[in-house]
Automatic annotation (TrEMBL):
Name of the molecule in the record: Large ribosomal subunit protein eL30
Keywords: Ribonucleoprotein, Ribosomal protein
InterPro entries in the cross-refs: Ribosomal_eL30, Ribosomal_eL30-like, Ribosomal_eL30-like_sf, Ribosomal_eL30_CS, Ribosomal_eL8/eL30/eS12/Gad45
Domain of life: Eukaryota
Domain named Ribosomal protein eL8/eL30/eS12/Gadd45: residues: 30-121
Family to which the UniProt record says this protein belongs: Belongs to the eukaryotic ribosomal protein eL30 family.
GO molecular function: RNA binding; structural constituent of ribosome
One Pfam family it belongs to: Ribosomal_L7Ae
Coiled-coil portions: none
HAMAP family the UniProt entry points to: Ribosomal_eL30
Ribonucleoprotein in keyword set: yes
GO cellular component: cytosolic large ribosomal subunit
Gene3D superfamilies: 3.30.1330.30
Amino acid sequence: MCSLYLCAKVFPGSPILMAPRKQKKAAEGINSRLALVIKSGKYVLGYRQTLKTLRSGKAKLVILANNTPPLRRSEIEYYAMLAKTGVHHYNGNNIELGTACGKYFRVCMMSITDQGDSDIIRTVPSIGGEQS
């Protein structure tokens, strides 16, 4: 384990030094856009439904929780790459993603088929999420 100073010298862009305020603002931005999609757009929740939308080509954006199992994550990323669909890695676990969707259950992944009044599909890559 190294000191903060040494970590800053060895790993200049490490996430340890990222400002928590910026991460919090990015999370608030994606959460508000997600709430607008839930209210005015069309979406599906869950692995099987997301897979169906990717296979049929209806998915515009896929959002994955950060604790999605690696095999499932890579499978969804592969299907999204074939369908030329964006993938956003949500900066929170499946409980937090479910809460952001306004649900009282865990949501590991979701697929947005119609963004409604939201601009989530255009702005998600710039919020700080990883786009594949």
